[in-house]
Write a structure and sequence with these properties.
alpha+beta, Glutaredoxin, four-stranded mixed sheet, 9 helices
């Protein structure tokens, strides 16, 4: 048995964590399915019935991890020799932007896509403020730093980078010079290309192209 079992749907946020699995060089087997039919018992593993979900077969017991940002950081923790964790000076920025991307940035992008209008006087209540403010914060950081934690790729970039790869691809995030350069750095990585090729084959096999 592989050390990890990875539950995913090819055209989903599962792509974010597959990239992390390849950056970590994790020993994993996949259970890929489509939205219409989950594997039997999947809801027992993840009551939200969503992907990605990772099961770590750890000795004589299993650990279940859901939420892509949590999965990706967990993989960095379980593969410390890969250099994907932040050092003492990168730690603050690593967690700042990892959770910013998983919270305010993704919420703001989705709100815009859903045409959810937040009145100006309630932007503080919404948490993410506005799409313009979240993108301005990220543009400021990425204009001065190559990656989420600074000038070195870390596991945070598998999540933050995915938000910008998808956002620029589908037009939900504007293509500023800083964002385009960041996406180019992320997509040039061998692990990203390996992981994406697997999901692309699954998408083509399912006729979802």
């Amino acid at each position: 048995m592989a050390e990890f079992t990875f539950y995913t749907v090819a055209m989903s946020r599962g792509q974010i964590s597959r990239w992390a699995l390849h950056e970590a060089g994790a020993d994993y087997e996949q259970i890929a399915f489509d939205w219409a039919k989950r594997p039997d018992g999947f809801a027992d593993i993840n009551p939200m019935n969503k992907v990605p979900t990772l099961v770590h077969h750890h000795g004589d017991h299993d650990h279940v991890i859901s939420e892509a940002a949590a999965i990706n950081h967990y993989l960095a923790e379980t593969h410390p020799d890969k250099g994907l964790l932040p050092d003492a000076h990168e730690r603050a920025s690593y967690f700042r932007w990892l959770f910013f991307a998983a919270g305010p940035l993704e919420q703001a992008v989705i709100a815009k896509a859903m045409d959810w209008e937040v009145p100006e006087e309630r932007t503080a209540m919404a948490g993410f403020g506005s799409l313009e403010k979240t993108l301005s914060a990220m543009d400021g950081w990425l204009s001065e730093n190559d990656f989420a934690a600074g000038n070195r790729f870390t596991m945070a970039d598998t999540y933050v980078g995915s938000q910008f790869i998808w956002g620029l691809r589908f037009g939900s995030i504007p293509a500023t010079p800083a964002f385009e350069a960041y996406v180019a750095r992320c997509t040039d990585r061998a692990a990203y290309k390996e992981a994406t090729a697997i999901d692309q084959r699954l998408i083509e096999a399912a006729g979802e192209t």
